[in-house]
Amino acid sequence: MGGTSGNEILTSATAAVLTLLLLAEGVTVIRMNGLVTAHMFIGMVLIPPLLLKLTSTGYRFARYYTGARAYRDKGPPYLPLRALAPVLVLATIGLFGTGIVLMADHHRSDTVMFFHKLTFIVWGVVFGIHFLAYVPRVLRSLRADWTQSRRHTVPGSGWRAMLVAASLGGGLALALALLSTIQGFHGGDGFG
Predict the structure, then answer these.
(1) What angle do CA 113, 31, 136 make, to 5 degrees?
(2) What SS3 state is found at 43?
(3) Exposure of 157 by Cβ count < 10 A (0-12 exposed, 13-18 middle, 19+ buried)?
(4) DSSP type of residue 155
(5) Which of 27, 81, 97, 168: disulfide with 77, CB 3.0–4.6 Å?
């Protein structure tokens, strides 16, 4: 689906979707007491695009470290970002994992809530660094992919668009499927 350039475009497009969803999720964090239901709904929508991003970056990681020439020629991310990547992945898994557990058990565990808040702090710091480091590259990649000439030179644009749309649609379907559970948490405050 377009080799290293296609992988970069897929990663960037997914990052753009995640950024918009994370901004919406950030608004719910600011007013958590009134927006818990919206927070959980958006959290569920985030899961499939997040999995797509982890898959696209994990694929690049695996191809680079297994010696694939095109990925070796493209080179690794800067060393500080490579060092932060495992922390970001683990914090992301911890944040979403504890959020899912909290939703499933209707927040009956103060220990899980503590770890959810702790992973959010770690995730927020590491994600902030990651975001600031990559936002120029993502914007360049997206701008280049939207030009007519780039679409013809990097095969798989339809597949990439379908993957991003399917991840977003899958997230929406997941959130809607769990809506009664989500609304049952704190009586459905802040959504609908």
Answers:
(1) 90
(2) helix
(3) buried
(4) S
(5) 81
Structure tokens at 119: 């992973």
pTM: 0.86
- Break the chain into its structural domains and give their ranges: 3-188
126-153 residue pLDDT tens: 999 999 998 887 777 777 666 655 556 7
> Which two three-digit tokens encode residue 182?
């989500």
CB 61 within 8 A of CB 86: no
Residue range 93-118, pLDDT digits in tens: 999 999 999 888 877 788 999 999 99
Give the pair of three-digit tokens for residue 166: 């399917």
| Helices 79-104 and 110-145, axial angle in degrees (round to 10) | 130
In total, the chain counts a number of residues equal to 192
What would you report as the CA-atom Rg of the chain, rounded to the nearest whole angstrom?
18
Q: Report the SS3 class of residue 147.
A: coil
Q: Letter for the amino acid at 121?
A: I
Opening angle at CA 172, ends 178 and 188, nearest 5: 45
Element (H, E) at 97: helix 79-104
